[in-house]
């Protein structure tokens, strides 16, 4: 079993014996015993388990794309929340699904991104999930539930879900013993929210400038696809029941607006190509990209060649990747649809705007990796430095450049670079982990473990952070200020752990 359960994660988490009462009316949130802050903590607890699982897609470019797409929808709808800001992430799973978690976390399966026939379809699904959060559907489901009872259920379900990835029978058994009957009884409850999420999500989609056909066309694809699935239904329909009435309602709203042609962003195509390049046997994937390019069976040639380069790197065909990169540059120079990337040349600063700014950053980051993997170290560092002038805080580029400095035995330069970036990229878990690597290479164990503790704190794992800080203090250090800083941080986190235990 994969993460097919995830939109109905809230009803799964809270079986009938935990509720102990009838669910409140959908419009009544006054009985909620879980505050927005506690709801966020519930989401963080779930995300801790997801982060630790191998299916979590830890790719900054994909996550940043989903965040930009989601932020565009949220801003257009005026739904910005300062209590629980949205966080978007991807799951490496070929099934077609998306889900919302308590605390405004929204996950998207990689299979959904590649299955979407255009960006408006993907935006339509994302708008639907955002609407579940903004309309407080998740908060309503857990209203009246004791906070500690919720946390206990999360732990039990997380164990079942993670176990099921390696042993489906074991995971199913854990769920069946406590919750199987409750799942079906709560499915009707979730259906009550779907129509509202459709309406709010549809308006969000239109205001953000996407094609309103995107939502209904995706639902139609899912219904048509159901006949080809072994179990008779795609995972998205298992967690988001779609009826003919719902599709007809969205189609009626779309007809009222008329036809609107909305081009896909280049970034959308690049992200899809990157995901396709990461799946399956590398040799087979390389051959598939080459066949599509030879037969001209692609939507966007720049994205197709970008995906081929990723596949070649994954297959460790580094020389071929370098050749494919040169071909990509020639295509960019000659392709009229890539006009904003015309000035895109190896080692030169790029002047582009809007969507092409992100797309150029993705291409330059990949180009630097190709040069580095081919042993062209000087070219790689020149390209990194030129790209950073154009995209100074692009996360994938920042991570890769830091990692390259570490690999080439320059930890002090890497640390200085991270410190300069930390003024602009705040609370970044990966930067803290890279900082820990820098201090380890420089022989400063106290600061190494302190940096690792800061990463764990931001993951919500306070107890592990306490352990790291305690390890840090075991190492002798001459700097009284640094030692005092670690001791103060340890006291602070211990107080937070104690406060958690009292809840």
Topology at a glance:
Elements: H1 9-13, H2 16-19, H3 36-52, E1 56-57, H4 60-77, E2 87-91, E3 98-101, E4 105-109, H5 110-115, H6 119-134, H7 137-141, H8 147-166, H9 168-207, H10 213-225, H11 235-239, H12 244-257, H13 266-277, H14 282-295, H15 301-314, H16 318-334, H17 355-373, H18 377-390, H19 395-407, H20 411-421, H21 429-442, H22 445-458, H23 462-474, H24 480-502
Parallel strand pairs: 2-4
Antiparallel strand pairs: 1-2, 3-4
Helix pairs in contact: 3-8, 4-6, 4-9, 6-9, 6-10, 8-9, 10-12, 13-15, 14-15, 15-16, 15-17, 16-17, 17-18, 17-19, 18-19, 19-20, 19-21, 20-21, 21-22, 22-23, 22-24, 23-24
Overall description:
By secondary structure, this protein is mainly α. The chain has 3 domains: 3-257, no CATH class; 265-408, Serine Threonine Protein Phosphatase 5, Tetratricopeptide repeat; 413-503, Serine Threonine Protein Phosphatase 5, Tetratricopeptide repeat. It contains 24 helices and 4 strands. It has helices spanning 9-13, 16-19, 36-52, 60-77, 110-115, 119-134, 137-141, 147-166, 168-207, 213-225, 235-239, 244-257, 266-277, 282-295, 301-314, 318-334, 355-373, 377-390, 395-407, 411-421, 429-442, 445-458, 462-474, 480-502, and strands at 56-57, 87-91, 98-101, 105-109. A 4-stranded mixed sheet has the order 1-2-4-3. A hairpin with a 3-residue loop joins strand 3 (98-101) and strand 4. Helix 10 runs antiparallel to helix 12 (244-257), helix 15 (301-314) runs parallel beside helix 17 (355-373) and helix 18 packs antiparallel against helix 19 (395-407). It is flat. Residues 1-32, 160-189 and 344-353 have low confidence and may be disordered.
